[in-house]
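Exercise 3.2. Students should predict the tertiary structure of the chain below and write it as structure tokens, then compare their answer with the key that follows.

Predict this chain's 3D structure.
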Amino acid sequence: MSPYSQSSIQPAAPDKSGASFGRSSDGLLVALVGENSYAMVPARGGQHYLATGWRISRPMAEWTRSDFYSHFGDLADEGAFRAKVLEQAQHCREKQALGRLRLAGGAHTPWGQSQGGTIYAEGVVSHSTAGHGGFKLSAERNRKVHTLLRAPGGWYEEDECWAIVAITFPQLFTSLERRYAEQTVKDSWPDAWEEISGTRKRRFSTSSPYWPPSSPVLWNASLHSAANMVTMSKSAASSCRRPNTVSGVSASSSIRIGMASMMAHRASPAGAGGRPDDSSARSRPAAFAP
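Answer key:
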């Protein structure tokens, strides 16, 4: 029997979590959190995945598959769908409590003219452009970024480098964003993360047949440590200066579920998709609405 043929879930008003669940006109398990809608969409082999929509004006019972777009991660069952939606609901509550402010467009960024942005705090502003986006830190704020990850100009693109801003100023981000940010830094700059967090990989002895290492790693030899730190710092800063840095997607789909709404929803044929108030790839969750 299809999991969509019957269900104990009935359309309901949002509970204290801020989420409501129901069924679409074509039998999909769906949910609504604020202006963000979610659907558990069937895939091949009896699998399912999470799709999202935005500002669907019709009642939930009139929604259809065509209202949803993108693939934001596999779902094992209805329980997993509910958990993902409730996670987004908590994220939205926390984000609202942070009191982020909208910013008009027009500013110049490395990715083109800003079409709008979000003020997280004084000196911490995200910008969205037609093709990309990211954060701009003031000089004072940028000095607080760890030297291994600091971008000299204070620009941090949205695919990965946004996470540097989040781990530097965790009080400005939701718990969901902080989790994604930490994982992103671990994946993108593992050596820097180990240095910053105090967890290090095994060191090589100078008598080891693998000495010297073929790529920058952290080790105990003081003569090499300083030079290695400089190499790591330059590498991280360089990647954050590149306007269109897009990395692999090993952790991508789950991260998109939150940051796809972190920067600001972009218009698309199906509605507005894109980044969490400001975001999208292996570095972000998929439905952080601004």
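Discussion points: Residues 103-199+229-277 form one domain. The helical segments are 78-98, 139-142, 162-168, 175-188, 190-197, 222-241, 252-259.
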